[in-house]
Give the backbone structure.
Amino acid sequence: MRRSALRTLAGSRFALRHANPARLLLAGYLSYILVGWALLSLPVAQLHPVSAIDNLFMATSAVSTTGLVSVDPGTSYTFFGEAVLLLLIQLGGLGYMTIGSFAVLALAHNLGPLRQNTARAAFSLPADINIAAFLRSVVLFTLISELIGMLVLYELFAGRGVEEPLWSALFHSVSAFCTAGFSLFPNSFEDFRADVPVNLTISALSLLGAMGFIVIGDTWRTMTGRKRKLGFTSKVIARMTLVFLVAGTALLFIAEPGIDALPPGERLMTAFFQTMTASTTVGFDTYPIGSLTHASLVILLFLMAIGASPAGTGGGLKTTSFAVLLGLVRSTLRGRRHVHFFHRRVKPARVQTAGAALAYFFGLLLVALFMLMLTEPQAPFEQVVFEAISAMGTVGLSMGVTGDLSYLGKVVIVVLMIAGRLGFLTFGIALATVDETSERTDNELVL
């Protein structure tokens, strides 16, 4: 019997060591969501009774750093409830593998193969990066950035008469850096539309989180002279981010008549902030989303779908995937066999991954829209589409339909938020079964 128990234990350890990293990530996020759901359901967390589905929705939104809310956090939860949300946002933004692995490093000073592989999957990291050093840098940079953001916001909020300025500064600093978009203000940052210091502070925190830890580390090493120039990935991310910010701001500045009445400076700041909040997937707003024209909504939908950059706190398809797909189109039109960027060839495996992620994104979106049309027959189509893409991109912007969703509609959005946080391809791999059967090459398929 003792030998049997030992064999069972050994088998379990072998299975865990060779487990699918994508499934471990999914299990980790689900466990955080369930714990958060339980804590938010406690009477001590609520100012007034909140339904079970709304608590689940809020816990999922926090862990996935989405920011869609079915109830107002500031008027529905006590300080304890808000603290639970903040903790879930921090854990979700850093990733549960980062927290666990950092603790292991502090105690054992090394990581096993399973934790290393899962961390690579969580941050979409290349195989040649030092996982231990990367995780240490992630935690250190996150805490320093959030601390500086909190101090700056505290000075700004205290001078503007915000209630509990220190707690509000901490909450919004973490929420901004983790691109969560949760706000204790009932109308997000709409009251700060003309406040340049607040706008710039929130934008800086959001961009730091969304750009990705690879880019931040690469930039730091270049500035300190430890590296001659930015790496290939950092160049692609920096260029794509700049293009999206400039183009999105210009288009919204021109195409949105609702901000025409604002002073030129405030109008430009409003256009920039809405572009930033969609492209970084942070989800704060300084202008009511439901008041935007269809042209402006199309711009935001595109930015939300593309999302932030890999190895960061944001969601979406990722800027690098979109860049690869653009390169694929250009190469195909020019009759080239390979995709090139900055005079470097992109590996075919990267192109395949980008294409698969795009296909999975649209496949999941179509299924979700079909289900939402069944569960929300009275909701306007454009509001449902906006809500679904916002959830998949873990953005959190809404046209005001979130709180009115049915029970099943909220469940659909919950699934989309989890898929968006995990990454569409990783989410698919976590649910798929491995096919190890032999295959034959077919050279006769016509495309």
